[in-house]
């Protein structure tokens, strides 16, 4: 009886997840670096308050796709994006879109922790300052504290907020970068292999953090670790040679995937 | 298992599990068959062999369990690899139970040796045993070939064993009512018949596990049930 009701609860949660509102959506997305095409007609929906993992072998286009979501590809000279990517139905490649504002709404955490060469406090306050999110010291203090709290770093750094961010350990630096991303109250957080430079304990902390952040943010994470994708995400998208080959519930993806290429990749077989 | 793993040692570990399951299957099959032969021919030496072979089967099950755990820890298997390993653990458990049931039958050989097994009951037991052994042999073949259709066929056939068991149950009751001096022997034989029927159930479990390994889905629908012995003797029957 107990088991039945638990399954029922899970089913409801699952339905809630599959019915979650669309936050971002890619339609027929193609990306070219000069003559070379890196992505072919990718159609992928990113649901609100869901962790979506992008997996696939090196060079499959997963990071390229991630970077189209906040126009990080704009910084690459010969990169061209076609198709439509929307955030709450607005085309983010529309000429009227302010890219700085877009990146405040769609934040990013990179593979290597990259704190600014400033104090821990300034690292977190920087974004709110340039976006004018706080008016006085008290408001900045509040944003800094709550962001560091959310990133699970507050207790470790509260007594040394004026020390340089670069003096923290790798795992702490990565959580500082997450605090920095969270500080501007983004709606979506993109993470490009956020744990690949961290040890297992720091990785576990970041994964726990991702789990908590999901309540307030929509998260898209690129990871090379299949186990990590299985642990942190609810939806998984598998890329291969510039194609999106399968998108599925994570539980299904790692126990019984539909596509042979996914199967071969996650099981570490010759494809 | 169309393609190989990039890490070939992983393939070796999976092959090891498959090979040990096949070996366990062979031994369990032999123990179950021998136990019924020992019962009918009152062969206490053969019964003793079945009893002592159970230790080997138990050790094999533990070995498979331990290797499976180590493989999961080392390789963190996904998808069909994971189902394969979990399936091996479950099948090893079923085969170990088959051995236990054979051993239980073998232990009863001494108790029924003096009175012997009446001819008509012996025929019934042999028939039941033959059906169960066929199921076990077939399911072990299916494990080697991973044929989903055949796994389903085995599952469907279990009702035949159930109905033979039910009629044997009625027959034993009749014997006991006719001649109360046979109650001791017949009660032992009743347990033996039940043991054999349970072996059929384990074969069905294994078929379902193989279905899951191959497809990632649970077999659909209730399995057919013809074991009506639970209501034999009930008022109105």
From TrEMBL, chain A:
Which biological processes are named by the entry's GO terms?
A: phosphate ion transmembrane transport
Extent of the signal sequence = none
Transcription keyword on record: no
Identify the keywords attached in UniProt to this record, alphabetized. Answer: ATP-binding, Nucleotide-binding, Phosphate transport, Transport
Q: Which GO terms describe its cellular component?
A: membrane
Residue ranges of domain ABC transporter in the record: 24-266
Q: Which GO terms describe its molecular function?
A: ATP binding; ATP hydrolysis activity; phosphate transmembrane transporter activity
Check the record and name the SMART domains matching this protein: AAA
**What does the sequence similarity comment in the record state about its family?**
Belongs to the ABC transporter superfamily.
Q: What is this protein called?
A: Phosphate transport system ATP-binding protein
- Provide the species name: Allorhizobium borbori
Automatic annotation (TrEMBL), chain B:
Whether Transport counts among this entry's keywords is: yes
Pfam families linked to this entry: PhoU
Q: Name one GO biological process term.
A: phosphate ion transport
Q: Which residues form the PhoU domain?
A: 21-109, 126-209
Amino-acid biosynthesis recorded as keyword: no
Q: What subcellular locations does the record give?
A: Cytoplasm
Where is it found, in Gene Ontology cellular component terms?
cytoplasm
- Which keywords describe this protein according to UniProt? Cytoplasm, Phosphate transport, Transport
- State where it is primarily located: cytoplasm
Please list every transmembrane segment annotated in the UniProt record, as residue ranges: none
State the oligomer form and interacting partners.
Answer: Homodimer.
Q: Please give the function described in this protein's UniProt entry.
A: Plays a role in the regulation of phosphate uptake.
Q: Which family does it belong to?
A: Belongs to the PhoU family.
- Name by which UniProt lists this protein: Phosphate-specific transport system accessory protein PhoU
Q: What is the taxonomic lineage of the source species?
A: Bacteria, Pseudomonadati, Pseudomonadota, Alphaproteobacteria, Hyphomicrobiales
């Amino acid at each position: 009886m107990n088991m039945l009701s638990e399954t029922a609860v899970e089913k409801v949660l699952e339905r809630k997840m599959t019915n979650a509102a669309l936050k971002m959506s890619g339609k027929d997305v193609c990306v070219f670096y000069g003559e070379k095409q890196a992505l072919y007609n990718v159609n992928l929906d990113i649901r609100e308050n869901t962790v979506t993992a992008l997996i696939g072998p090196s060079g499959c286009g997963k990071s390229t796709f991630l970077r189209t979501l906040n126009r990080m590809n704009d910084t690459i000279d010969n990169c061209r994006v076609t198709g439509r990517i929307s955030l709450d139905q607005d085309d983010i490649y529309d000429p009227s879109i302010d890219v700085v504002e877009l990146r405040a709404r769609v934040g990013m955490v990179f593979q290597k922790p990259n704190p600014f060469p400033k104090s821990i406090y300034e690292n977190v306050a920087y974004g709110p300052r340039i976006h004018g999110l706080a008016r006085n010291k008290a408001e900045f203090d509040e944003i800094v504290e709550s962001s560091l709290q959310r990133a699970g770093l507050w207790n470790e750094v509260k007594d040394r907020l004026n020390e340089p961010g670069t003096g923290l350990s790798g795992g702490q630096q990565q959580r500082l970068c997450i605090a920095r991303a969270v500080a501007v109250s983004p709606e979506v957080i993109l993470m490009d292999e956020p744990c690949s430079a961290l040890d297992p304990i720091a990785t576990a902390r970041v994964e726990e953090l991702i789990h908590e952040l999901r309540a307030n943010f929509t998260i898209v994470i690129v990871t090379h670790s299949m186990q990590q994708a299985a642990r942190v995400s609810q939806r998984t998208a598998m890329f291969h040679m510039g194609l999106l080959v399968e998108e599925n519930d994570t539980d299904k993806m790692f126990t019984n995937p539909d596509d042979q290429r996914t199967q071969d990749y996650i099981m570490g077989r010759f494809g | 298992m169309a393609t190989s793993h990039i890490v070939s040692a992983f393939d070796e570990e999976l092959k090891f599990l498959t090979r040990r399951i096949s070996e366990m299957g062979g031994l369990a099959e032999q123990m179950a068959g021998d136990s019924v032969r020992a019962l009918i021919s009152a062969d206490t030496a053969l019964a003793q062999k079945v009893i002592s072979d159970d230790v080997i089967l138990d050790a094999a099950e533990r070995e498979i369990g331990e290797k499976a755990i180590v493989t999961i820890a080392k390789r963190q298997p996904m998808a069909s690899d994971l189902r394969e390993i979990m399936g091996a653990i479950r099948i090893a458990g079923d085969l170990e139970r088959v051995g236990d049931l054979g051993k239980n039958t073998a232990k009863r050989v001494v108790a029924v040796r003096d009175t012997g097994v009446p001819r008509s009951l012996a025929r019934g037991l042999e028939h039941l045993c033959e059906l169960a052994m066929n199921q076990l042999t077939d399911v072990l073949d299916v494990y080697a070939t991973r044929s989903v259709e055949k796994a389903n066929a085995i599952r469907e056939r279990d009702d035949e064993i159930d109905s033979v068991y039910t009629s044997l149950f009625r027959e034993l009751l009749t014997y006991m009512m006719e001649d109360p001096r046979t109650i001791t022997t017949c009660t032992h034989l009743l347990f033996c018949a039940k043991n054999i029927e349970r072996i059929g159930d384990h074969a069905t479990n294994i078929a379902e596990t193989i279905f899951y390994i191959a497809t990632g889905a649970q077999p659909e629908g209730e399995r057919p049930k013809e074991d009506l012995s639970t209501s034999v003797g009930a008022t109105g029957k």
